[in-house]
Here is the input.
Amino acid sequence: MIRMLVNSAARGELPVAPPRPQGRERNVVITMWDWANPKVYLHDEIATDKRDPTVNANGPIYGALEASADYMPVVDPTRNSASQVQLQVRDPKTPSEADTPPAQPSPYWGTEAIWTSRANAHSFAMDRQGRVWIAARIRPNQTAAFCQPGSTHPSAIACPLKQSGRQMQLYDPKTKQVTTVDTCFGTHHLNFDANGTLWFTGGGPVEGWFNTKVYEETKDEAKAQGWTAFVLDTNGNGKRDAYVEPNQPIDPTKDKRIDAPFYGVAPSPVDGSIWGSVLGMPGSLVRLVPGSNPPATALSEIYEVPWNSPKASAQGFAPRGMDVDGNGVVWTVLSSGQLASFDRRRCKGPLNGPTATGQHCPEGWSLYALPGPNYTGAKDSASADSAYYNFVDRFDMLGVGKSVPLANGNESEALLVLVDGKFVVWTVLSSGQLASFDRRRCKGPLNGPTATGQHCPEGWSLYALPGPNYTGAKDSASADSAYYNFVDRFDMLGVGKSVPLANGNESEALLVLVDGKFLTFRVPYPMGFYAKGMDGRIDDPNAGWKGKAIWTTYATRAPFHEEGGKGTTSKLVKFQVRPDPLAK
Here is the structure.
């Protein structure tokens, strides 16, 4: 692959030069702070409570160093100061990243094991008190007795768990204390629902939750948590019954369990259902309705990204990050080079029963190609750009509108912003798309023996990420790649409410989808902008564009490979959109 690319470049086969910023792209204001140190890398950051972007106004921004070190870097943007919060582990036998020496000497660090973390903090959620809940390790993998076979815990009776890789830590900025919290299920990404319950990814075959209100009242870790298997209502009777296993054929008298480990997770602000993205080919979005007794009553629906579907208007694959906008539409970024939305309301068929197994609602999907080049002749990708994650700016914190989806253009070194405001659940696909899923568009049954993933293609909308694609590519929409995405439900960026954003990881940009077209907010310096998580905050609702912003980081694991070389640190990055290029 590398030889092919080098030879192609030598022949002059280069992507077209990216266009100069146009329209509102010229209005973006980017502010950066150095934080952490040259040997560590940033994975994620948190600025506020996603449900209320005025929480922690003008307060500190916290970062996660994942495998590299056992502290949270902190930036106070009002004082332009940086500090650290030390993380903890409960069990001194918790393994360290330093236990594994480098496979080969580094040209920068030699044989030094520069990553030393035991906590391995990955992602955050902030509550209404400004406290930070951290997906982080506190012990070795073996779970506590109440998680395992023989326990009387309701979730363990239904589905015992013997191991989990990460658990949780809680930081209270008022007391400056860090508290360790054990969970039976693994933790990775996390989000609050409206009732103060945290929902997680990282649990593998189960979806886990932690009721923070119960924990505050009782300090009982076991009582506050629970988990459930993913079960489709394939017999179509509207309730959870005995089920067959994922490797067993559908039984018309039973339901069916599926393997659907969430990568991204977001509760819907419309109906309280829990949505998650599932990696793979073609990948999917899964909707979980907890019911009155979640370990025994939770039901799932699966909506696969349209792939080789004659009923779909566009094809894509491999979602990663995801978010839900203020209308309940799901947005995701696709490895096929698109930002995609899925609107369940558009589904025409049954959303349960034996046919609701993934490809039953292609009409629910809309795909938007990421901006930027694609591969020559590519038919299966929309853009060469890639977005690790996405975010919906529900509160117009960026300044382009409420519920605008954003994606991080990891190849374009940009923030990609899709301004539309009409979509529901969003995720990013490895096929180079930002995708939304709107369950309301599903036409068939959402339970029953057919509701196993491909039963609602009509709920999906795929948007090719901007940028180039690969020559002759048929399976990707763009050569860009988006690690994650975010729905700006509150217009924190400033381009509108419920606008989806994706991180253009190949384009070094934030990609913003507005009215079906991408705005590319490229970070020009230092070269190598590679974002993962995004967050938005409103510091002053009366200050116009200056009082709100979208926050993200330089999240590459090797900051010493960026412009500046050895000694370069990660950056905290703030995006704002002013009304015109000269606005003060």
